[in-house]
Amino acid sequence: MQEIADIEQALRRAAPHRLVGVVEDALREHCGALGVELRLADYALRSLQLVGGTAGADPSVPVHDSPQGRAFGAQEPYVLREAESLRLHLPVTVRGDRLGVLTAVLPPDTDLRPLLPALAQLCEALGHEILVAERDTDLYVLARRATRLTLAAEMQWQLLPGRSCARPEFALAAHLEPAYAIFGDNYDWSVSDGRLTLTVTNGMGEGIEAALLTNLAINALRNARRAGLGLADQAALADQAVYAQYRGAAFVSVLLLRFDLATGEVEAVDAGSPRLWRLRGHAVEPVRFDEQLPLGMFEDTAYATERFSVRPGDRLLFGSDGVYGAVSPAGESYGDRALARALRGTRLLPPTHVPQAVLRELAAHHGGGPLDDDALVVCLDWYGTASTVAV
């Protein structure tokens, strides 16, 4: 497919809701495709939801028990050869953020070897255009929901940067439960100037009030970060913003970290309840900080940074209080020992699979019923740079 550049141009020129149609037209012309469909992962990462209408297609298929799900989970093409056609399922992923799966139905004698590199490039271009198009159409946002979101959850998902991110130095992923009814938990990240800034947030309260509180805190932290302030000053500015609005009646717990991508040195401000565990080799241990006051509890709180370092091969796991505070029927908190077991048990999984796996373990630990609080898990695998690996 030497015409890939022309298809990318057509995607950029297309109306936001016409992206799948552009891909289908191109694959019909250049590959003899018999049909094309796009499915996006739902908010709970349990199903792949059909974008638009395709005659005879199921509106959703499960992530964990479907051909499309195999391509999505493995992040590799998956082929089904049938008597009259060949079904090619391709992951659609942008900078490590898994969006969904593109399926092309091709003639049964199609030689895939020369096509796969160009189709992978096409899927990446499609993913980029979906993220741009979401500013102007609800089509792709609607396709991601298997059921209706609460208003609080709608606000929180619009605030999130994505579900995963990958760079040569690290890969990270996050998940929230209950996905369609979250309210106070949140996370944020930004990569620039050789640094990764990561925040894990737990706003007090429930429903819309918790979502409003978290929105204020996250945007205050972003405003301070984008003004070039240091980590402690970012916390202080957000603290002032929350206190000015709520006068101490509501506050936000946040763990704020900034990683130096070249050295693995980390600055941290612990302002409340989110906690951090580290898997190094087979050893799991909590990374403890001096707890400082949550944002907005008192006026003009001063914050101080602490430092630690990460090594290539380290896995960091961040959890909100809905994770480590969940109690089993026998009265054992999940954060006491069960979380360490879950972290060891998932050490061979890629980071994109870990948050969901831990949350499944959490649900079983809790007895299978609804959790008492929303729960957030963030997993970060640290690879380092060539220089840090050499050291």
Automatic annotation (TrEMBL):
Higher taxonomy: Bacteria, Bacillati, Actinomycetota, Actinomycetes, Kitasatosporales
Domain of life according to the entry: Bacteria
Protein name: PP2C family protein-serine/threonine phosphatase
PANTHER family in the cross-refs: STAGE II SPORULATION PROTEIN E, STAGE II SPORULATION PROTEIN E-RELATED
Coiled coil: none
UniProt GO MF annotations: protein serine/threonine phosphatase activity
Pfam families: SpoIIE (PF07228)
InterPro entries assigned to the protein according to its UniProt record, in alphabetical order: Bact_Sigma-Reg, PPM-type-like_dom_sf, PPM-type_phosphatase-like_dom
Ranges where the PPM-type phosphatase domain occurs: 167-382
